[in-house]
Structure formats: structure tokens, C-alpha cells
Backbone:
């Protein structure tokens, strides 16, 4: 499974939908994931990829981790894997 | 002042996953205490408890809910569903705005704490699930009940160790009695049967390794249990108007503090609570037919409690019945008073007195009718429920049949 597939699987599980129903352009809001769900998602990503995601739920827009769409989350995770596991 | 009645009851405990199953077990004098089963149990010197087995949380809650519900919250919600289904109440408009939830609890999400401490201390992990805090906080159960049933009035959790439920129900009673709320959901829950929970109790050296035998001369300590008891306390006129079935009337309560010792019970503090409840309910000692004892099975509690009862009731102490159902469902700590209230309701409604099982040898210091080993049929008009907590905080409730 690619990083993208694994990220989508985690997001889909959180949204309680099938991975095939997740589009890269979807936002968390589109998928019905609220702020608590997002925090749980980030925890699951950290566990899955053994990375530390810089994310503060108080000011998500200022975090160095772009959660504006599934696509940006995938890119963010790929970047963190590259940096933290290099 | 409003009269306060109980129109719904629910429970989960080692004797049963519903009220009817629990009462049947009490009638039969069945024991819910057995070998404990959880991780690292082999490292404990205390191996027994009244654990809830055959409980499948996934049959009641989805994955998302389970990420937020500690076991004590799960027990509470299932008991609340049973109680509210029996009461036949739904909350909207003004009823929802005024009705609330007051629950007793002592350890909070002890299982959640235990699992996460194990993960960060023992396994050296540096990350915990984001919902550890909302899952383990002591008010989680009360909050989830308020959310599931749309209760928007006064809601909170009371923590007074082994008297938590009785203090909670006293508060709920007061709110309905005083007209603040037409309906209050109340009771309590506890789930600390995990390695850390039992290990902590073990340290105090008050636990029995073989059985809970309240009032018996050969008693050797308490046995922990787990579970929840939840009740619907309702304004009598409100209940009558909608034709609700009434299980019993709550007629009074009292709370006292020993102000003396952090663990040793006090005869005087207990006696003042019992006498206070009678006074509050405008009852004569002779009216009381049954007392559900605190009856932990420790040397200190049982003799102190019997002496307090003898002090308050005088000659009538020899005529009333007093039993400890902890011998069957264990000491459910912050939820115990709520589970024990079921025995009071059974006495008033069904005329069946739950026994003190495990009774083997009379103790001259506990020379009361403790309904040894077998349930008994008797007509009872008024029942009391005693709770005397560590910290010297006491609460006694008085119930009357309707």
C-alpha cells in the first residue's frame, strides 16, 4: 500500500465511509470529520507512520501541517516521513 | 415541597445486566464474586472480585463511542437506558431544560488510566490516544447521559468514595423535592477492576482473599465489585399526571461527616446519619423494617455499623432486618449505593428481603437480624440504605413503598 492509500484508509475509517468514497480534493468538513475526529485522525497517522505531526488543535491554520484537503494531508505525511525518517 | 418517587431503575453488575436479573440473583442468594480476569492479574495477591462478565460492549456501542466511553461510562449508559425505558420519559422543551443528571463515582476512568500508564511507563510509548482525558474524567458518565437523553438542567458528579452514589441520590432527591427539577437521573457507577485499581486496594490490607462475609464472626475483609445503578427520580405529581408506574417513594435523607479519621468508621457519625434520615423523612424508628447495610465485611465497618443501628433504634434494632448485598455483588465503591438501592426497592415492592450470603458464624458485636444466607419474605413499609465512606462521609436514604 502506498502512503496515499494508507492515509485514505485512516481518514475513511474516521469518516466511517469506504476508502473508495474519499476523494483527494475532499476537505475534512466534506467528509464529516469534526475537530475531535481530526485530532483522532492525526493520532492514527502518527501511529501508522511512526511520525510526529506538528498540530495544535487551538490554531490548526498556524500548524506546520496543511489539513485543508486529503491531498495536502497525504503530502504533509510524505514530507514528515522524508524528514523524520531520513 | 414536592414528593419524590422513583419511576425507573437500571443496572449492570456482577449479578446481572438488568434489574430483573439482579433481583432474581438477590432472591436466590447467588454470589457474583469469582476469579478476576484481566492483564497482570497473576501479580496480585487479591485474586477475587465481583467482575461483570458476559458483557459485550460492542453490542451496545459503536467504535467511535467506545473511543470515548470508559467501562464506567458504558455501565452507566446501559443502566440509564434501562431506567429511562422503564420510566417511559423523553426530554424536550421545558422538561429537558430543567431535568439533569447527578451521578456518584469514585475512581473515574481507572481502566483508561491503567491502560495508558502501562503504555507510556511500561511499554515506553510516547503517544496516547487523544481522548484519554474526556474518557477518564469522573464526570464523563454524567455528561454522556445528559447528551444521550437531552438533559439540560443541573448535571454533575459527586465523589465521596463508597458513599458517592448515596450523596448523589441525596442531591437529586433534594433538587426534585425543592422544585428545582421535575426529573433527575441519578445513581452511580464504578469500574476499577484492573491491575492498578485492585493493586491500590491491596495496599490497604483490608481485602479478603476468599469471600465477602459481612457480619459473620470469621469475616476477613471486603471484596471489590463493579457496575452501575441508575434511577429516575421524579416529582410525584408529574409522575401521576402521566400515569407512570411508581417503584417507591424517596422520603428523606441525611448526610454527616465523622470529622475524625480518614479510614476508620465512627459509630457516632453513622448513627447521626441514620437518625438524620429518619428525622428528615418524619419517620419513627419503629417504621423501619429493612436496612440495606453498608456492610463491607471488614472487621471495623460491620461492628461499628451494628452499634450505630442499635443506638438509633434501641429495642427495635432487634426487630428490623439488616442485610449486606455486598456479599453478592461486591463493593462497587462509587456505584455501590445505587446498586444496593435495588434491594430496598425489592423489599418495599416485592416483599422480598435480600440476604447476607457467606454468613457462617454469629458475631456478638453484630447481633442483629442480618437475614443470613437466604432471602426472606416480609412486608416492609420503610427501608433505609446506608453508606459510610472512607474519609468519614456518610449518607443515608429513606424509601417508602407506594
Residues:
Amino acid at each position: 500500500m502506498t502512503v496515499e492509500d494508507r492515509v485514505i484508509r485512516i481518514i475513511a475509517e474516521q469518516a466511517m465511509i469506504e476508502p473508495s468514497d474519499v476523494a483527494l480534493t475532499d476537505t475534512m468538513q466534506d467528509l464529516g470529520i469534526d475537530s475531535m475526529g481530526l485530532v483522532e485522525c492525526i493520532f492514527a497517522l502518527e501511529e501508522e507512520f511512526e511520525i510526529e505531526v506538528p498540530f495544535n488543535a487551538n490554531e490548526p491554520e498556524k500548524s506546520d501541517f496543511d489539513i485543508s484537503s486529503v491531498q495536502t494531508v497525504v503530502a504533509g505525511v510524505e514530507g514528515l516521513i522524508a524528514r523524520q525518517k531520513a | 415541597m414536592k414528593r419524590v418517587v422513583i419511576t425507573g431503575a437500571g443496572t449492570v453488575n456482577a449479578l446481572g445486566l438488568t434489574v430483573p436479573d439482579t433481583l432474581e440473583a438477590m432472591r436466590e442468594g447467588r454470589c457474583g464474586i469469582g476469579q478476576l480476569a484481566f492483564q497482570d492479574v497473576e501479580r496480585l495477591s487479591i485474586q477475587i472480585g465481583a467482575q461483570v462478565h458476559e458483557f459485550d460492549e460492542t453490542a451496545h456501542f459503536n467504535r467511535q463511542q467506545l473511543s470515548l466511553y470508559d467501562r464506567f461510562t458504558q455501565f452507566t449508559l446501559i443502566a440509564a437506558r434501562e431506567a429511562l425505558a422503564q420510566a417511559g420519559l423523553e426530554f424536550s422543551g421545558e422538561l429537558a431544560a430543567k431535568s439533569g443528571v447527578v451521578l456518584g463515582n469514585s475512581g473515574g476512568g481507572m481502566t483508561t488510566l491503567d491502560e495508558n500508564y502501562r503504555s507510556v511507563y511500561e511499554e515506553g510509548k510516547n503517544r496516547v490516544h487523544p481522548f484519554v482525558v474526556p474518557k477518564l474524567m469522573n464526570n464523563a458518565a454524567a455528561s454522556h447521559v445528559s447528551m444521550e437523553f437531552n438533559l439540560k438542567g443541573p448535571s454533575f458528579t459527586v465523589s465521596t468514595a463508597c458513599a458517592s452514589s448515596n450523596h448523589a441520590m441525596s442531591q437529586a432527591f433534594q433538587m426534585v423535592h425543592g422544585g428545582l427539577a421535575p426529573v433527575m437521573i441519578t445513581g452511580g457507577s464504578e469500574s476499577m477492576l484492573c491491575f492498578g485499581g485492585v493493586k491500590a486496594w491491596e495496599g490497604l490490607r483490608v481485602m479478603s482473599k476468599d469471600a465477602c462475609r459481612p457480619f459473620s464472626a470469621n469475616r476477613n475483609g471486603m471484596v471489590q465489585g463493579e457496575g452501575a445503578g441508575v434511577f429516575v427520580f421524579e416529582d410525584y405529581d408529574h409522575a401521576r399526571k402521566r400515569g407512570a408506574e411508581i417503584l417507591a417513594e424517596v422520603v428523606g435523607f441525611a448526610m454527616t461527616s465523622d470529622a475524625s479519621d480518614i479510614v476508620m468508621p465512627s459509630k457516632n457519625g453513622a448513627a447521626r446519619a441514620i437518625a438524620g434520615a429518619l428525622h428528615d423523612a418524619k419517620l419513627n424508628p419503629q417504621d423501619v423494617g429493612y436496612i440495606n447495610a453498608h456492610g463491607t465485611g471488614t472487621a471495623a465497618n460491620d461492628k461499628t455499623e451494628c452499634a450505630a443501628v442499635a443506638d438509633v433504634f434501641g429495642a427495635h434494632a432487634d426487630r428490623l432486618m439488616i442485610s449486606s448485598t455486598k456479599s453478592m455483588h461486591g463493593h462497587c465503591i462509587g456505584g455501590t449505593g445505587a446498586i444496593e438501592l435495588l434491594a430496598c426497592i425489592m423489599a418495599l415492592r416485592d416483599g422480598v428481603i435480600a440476604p447476607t450470603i457467606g454468613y457462617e458464624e454469629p458475631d456478638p458485636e453484630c447481633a442483629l437480624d442480618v437475614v443470613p444466607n437466604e432471602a426472606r419474605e416480609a412486608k416492609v413499609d420503610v427501608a433505609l440504605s446506608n453508606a459510610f465512606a472512607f474519609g468519614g462521609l456518610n449518607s443515608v436514604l429513606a424509601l417508602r413503598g407506594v
Notes: The longest strand of chain B covers residues 4-13. The CA atoms of residues 351 and 379 of chain B lie 5 Å apart.
